[in-house]
Amino acid sequence: MNYTLIFGSFFLILFILSEIQNPSRIINGFLFFMSFSIYYLAIVFMLPRSVSGWILLVTMLLIFLAFVAFIVYMIHNGMVMMRREKRRLSNMLSLLMGAGIIGMIVLIIVCAVISTVYPQVSFIITGLTTCFMITMFVLFLMFNFLISAVVYRYLPTRYNKDFIIILGAGLLRGDQVSPLLASRLDKGLDFYNRQVKKKGKRAKIIVSGGQGKGEEISEAEAMADYLISKGCPKEDILMENKSRNTFENLLFSKAIMEQYGGKKNSIFVTNNYHVFRASILARKVKIKRTKGIGSKTAFYYVPSAFIREFIGVIAIRKWRYISIVAIIAGIYIFSLVMFYLSRR
């Protein structure tokens, strides 16, 4: 009996159960990754030892090359963002991540070389190595976040919705829908039309967005005008014009849906990079029987936006992750201290 396959099946079952119970969990990505990795190793170890050894070596090499390619791409993407978008911190996240990882690795190597001549600087290496380990944990967490987001994206969507919530975004020149917001509206209207065509059911579209600084009208009003210009029936549009962020978008939209009574099926629409975090917030405000769908975003914009979304998700449960990082750092530092003491 191959116990590795049983172990992989255990993680696969946990993944399926967790996904059914709550698809907006980062741990779902971890469970999927574990089941896939264990199945992969089980298949490799079924092969002759000479073959499996080479496959594992190639796999490790590919992982290393993928990590290097990731760093290079992050830096390249950051430079592209600086050319095409405003030079602000939120648009430089991919550049900062790539450069930060390289800088940390270089510092560790330099300090390791110096410590061979000046042993007293070894404590610096301990600190840097601890930071590097924490960085690797955060990157692994981000990888699981990516897997969870991709799995969520491909969950089936049923055409039985009573409400379509379209999340707002900033307006151009005070009263015009931006290309990013237009992509959300087009996606929502496309779903509305598809449902009418397939099921004959007309949903109510909730356009959600308040009036921000420098905006002449609310985002909801601009969104409603856009949908009407695209042929959406005015009587099927409901405006939520008080919200200031995603949490309020969903909270206030929920209040509108509750006015209609009964159990209602809904779907919310935003950009693809934003769907997973919005799904977590939808669960937080207790919108039941809902799912998110995402509109396309310019590819160069996705990495920095994805990092920003990841930070936003971590911030929702920040104390949980701060505790995990503190435990990792504590265990690692304690191990190093004990190692140094044992050598004396």
What does this structure look like?
One of its GO terms (biological process) is Gram-negative-bacterium-type cell wall biogenesis. By secondary structure, the protein is α/β, with parallel strands linked by helices. The protein has two domains: 124 residues, no CATH class; 135 residues, 3-Layer(aba) Sandwich (Rossmann fold). Helices cover 66% and strands 9% of the residues. A five-stranded parallel beta sheet has the order 5-4-1-6-7. A two-stranded antiparallel ribbon has the order 2-3. Helix 2 packs across helix 5, helix 3 packs across helix 4 and helix 5 runs antiparallel to helix 11. The radius of gyration is 24 Å and the shape is globular.
Q: What is the topology?
A:
Layout: H1 3-21, H2 26-46, H3 49-84, H4 93-115, H5 122-153, E1 163-167, E2 171-172, E3 176-177, H6 179-199, E4 204-208, H7 219-229, E5 237-240, H8 246-258, E6 266-271, H9 275-284, E7 290-295, H10 302-316, H11 318-342
Parallel strand pairs: 1-4, 1-6, 4-5, 6-7
Antiparallel strand pairs: 2-3
Major β-sheet strand ordering: 5-4-1-6-7
Distance between the termini: 48 Å
The shape, in one word, is globular
| Count of runs of 4 or more consecutive helical residues | 11
Average pLDDT rating: 88
